[in-house]
Amino acid sequence: MSASVSVSDSVSSPLVGVWLIGARGSVATTVVAGCAAMTAGLHPPTGLVTETPAFADSGLPPLASLVFGGHDTVDCPLPKRAEALAAGGVLPPGLPTAVAAELAAADREIRPGGPATGDTRTEQELIEAFAADIEDFVQRRGLARTVVVNVASTEPSAVGRALPPSSLYAAAALRAGCPYANFTPSTGLHHPALAESAEASGLPYAGRDGKTGQTLLRSVLGPMFTQRALTVRAWSGANLLGGGDGAALADPAAAAAKNAGKERVLADTLGTTPEGEVHIDDVPALGDWKTAWDHIAFDGFLGTRMILQTIWQGCDSALAAPLVLDLARLTVRAQEAGLSGPLGELGFFFKDPVGEGPAGLGEQYEALVGFAGRLKGTERGAGDVVGGRAEDEGQLRHEKGSSGAGSSGELW
Q1: Which family does it belong to (predicted)?
Q2: Which fold would CATH assign to domain 3-210+318-395?
Q3: Quick one: which of 12, 44, 63, 285 has the most CB atoms within 10 Å?
Q4: First-to-last CA distance in the chain?
């Protein structure tokens, strides 16, 4: 499936909203600029899984039908942010100028996030305000559906019942009737206070923590060692990165939240947790570029000790942006198909997936392709969806058995 197919199909397609949390960050800027570039035929859809043949007839919204908006706490306009990314080699030279109109249009749809320092609003008031921003976006732009995707900087793990910012935004997505995807390791819908609301919403959701580099390799190499009956004694790693993510992960609590997903992949694919840990170092001079190194000590036949080392050098935003577009299209299509609850089949994209599913990348890809195949034969769900919520909520059930909306529980 090529970009030209998506563009031509969009002529008669309804508009679909993509509401980005962290909408003026590097990843979000690359998402908006990249979508505009592919829609205009300026660049091919490299890295976009949903533009491969396996998804050709799955009824996904065309790229040209996507309309962007979001929340952020910074005020640097998207066109200016795109120029900085181009200067750093993240975006191609000249692209910010070529898609300036699309960047400006998305920037006009960005609303102040929070809570800011000194903000005295209660959690409920913040959730209502964020949800109102999303609902206004949907109504003004005449959007058929809207998905909320968290691409903001990593926050420390939540402590107690207080909702961290990522969970406030997730609750606002539920309140606005929007499916949700958490591309970060932040708490989001994982907060226990939101569990009942997520179930009662009848909405599909996916997450968490996008699998773009080091953990992508781990999800391939872990099964390899297991399948070849090789014993991994130790698996250590290091990440050197800059930019906003590097600054956020300089906080040990935020780094711990990030590393949890990396460790889970090894435990799930190896069946045990080897010695070693991942160290994350903020190197501002690297900007949006990352170097990830892994040192794997393993035993071979007759106990022969061996070593495998890997080096991954990549651009975080360029790795993440196509996956964000994939998730937005798949999650909103899942809602249209009448699915609800955790979308375990989207584990291919995440370090710490929600729902049930395999941990190895090959098996995760098979599950994803199977999911695409089921979407091909589905026009709408059993209950029609209006404003993101099901009219007949009792009929909306995820195919893996997750419960849909219920009559109990307050929706935030």
Answers
A1: Belongs to the myo-inositol 1-phosphate synthase family.
A2: Rossmann fold (3.40.50)
A3: 63
A4: 39
| Average pLDDT per block of 10 residues along the chain, 412 residues long | 42 89 97 98 97 97 98 97 95 97 98 92 97 98 98 89 96 98 96 95 96 92 96 94 75 70 84 90 89 96 97 94 98 97 97 92 96 83 38 36 34 52
The pTM of this model reads 0.87
Length of the chain: 412
Spatial CA neighbour of 91 closest among 35, 19, 41: 35
Cis peptide before 252 (omega within 30 of 0): no
Identify the CA nearest to 320 among candidates 150, 164, 145, 129: 150
Q: Cite the residue boundaries of each domain of the chain with CATH code 3.40.50.720.
A: 3-210+318-395
Fold held by 214-315: Dihydrodipicolinate Reductase; domain 2 (3.30.360)
Residue 145, beta-bridge partner list: 16
CA distance 350 to 357: 11
Instruction: Provide the b/e sequence for 171-182 (b: ≥16 CB within 10 Å).
Output: bbbbbbbbbbbb
DSSP state of 117: T
Strand (E) or helix (H) holding 248 = helix 243-249
CB neighbours (10 Å) of residue 64? 19
Kindly state the tokens that stand for 110: 């960005």
